[in-house]
Amino acid sequence: MLKPAKILDPPVPDTTASGERYLPISMACLQPEYRAPCDLYLKTGGRGYLFFAKKGLDFGHSHRARLQERGVTHLYIRDEDSALYFDYLKETITEIVRNPACQSEQKAAVIHSACQDIMSRVIADPRASFINQAHEIITPTIDLIVSDDTATRHLIQLTAYDHYTYTHSTNVGIFGVALARLLYRPNDFRKIERMGAGFFLHDLGKCRVPIEILNKPGKLTPSEWSVMQRHPAEGFQMLEEAGFLTDEAQIITLQHHEKDDGTGYPNALDRDNIHPLARICRLADVYDAITSDRPYAKRKSTYEALKLMKEQIVADIDQELFEHFVKLFRN
């Protein structure tokens, strides 16, 4: 199957000494059938950028192969070209998802790369325009998951690679929508679409948590844990300020760390007061965390994670919902 490019270091936006701002884009999002949407640059080390391709270049397989041989996974664009790149990304993934001649495996790979790309941008710079862009990329993703069983299976398989915060958000979004499809299908696509943004953006508030706390290898101090527990409310506030706080996103963002026994946060809700949508997100969040390499724990296999969730993580998991979740991993 198609695998996403391996990311050795999470690419981040960068501002040069002269004040020019460059944004990373995944090479997997540049499709050989389309022309380059704007000027493309290579990072040369430090804060240097080398012009690579002019807007309108027929970015074909030979360009991609040459870069891959050099170990390049990301190119860069100027900040002022971000709108051009986003329009290109939205157009290409929409066309690919709707193209009946395109294989489900390719659709899944393109969608997964696009979601990672836009989520990395939102986490690094959560301005309202980027949240809007994320929402517009999430919509065709939800459409693909709801309409194509084979593509959904490929998306589930693609979640096994690379686990930075933005990848975790992408994975939880995919799991959340796929599970919601099992529970709500064939009723209301619009309902799944509204909740989908909440699944993908559930951890947006983590961009306000200091990186040393997010990546701390040991146990958090009480003061550090207090900071970490603020991220659901921070995410709620950011979505509200950006104008994307649907009822579904509000519930998911605020409640995805609540537990049935009342030991969750931020409001210590008990089982009877936790919304089903938050339960879906919590389940996806727990699974992706267990199957990821974290600063304090090595990743577990799918089998090990599901076994652990069924037998030991009782306070976090709705067991009836869990039985539906397991179906996502059956071929």
Automatic annotation (TrEMBL):
Source species, domain of life: Bacteria
Entries under Gene3D superfamilies matching the protein: Hypothetical protein af1432
CDD domains found in the cross-reference section: HDc
InterPro entries found in the cross-reference section: HD/PDEase_dom, HD_GYP_dom
Pfam families to which the protein is assigned, alphabetical: HD_5 (PF13487)
Residues covered by the HD-GYP domain: 143-331
Protein name per UniProt: HDIG domain-containing protein
Species this protein is from: Desulfuromonas versatilis
Lineage: Bacteria, Pseudomonadati, Thermodesulfobacteriota, Desulfuromonadia, Desulfuromonadales
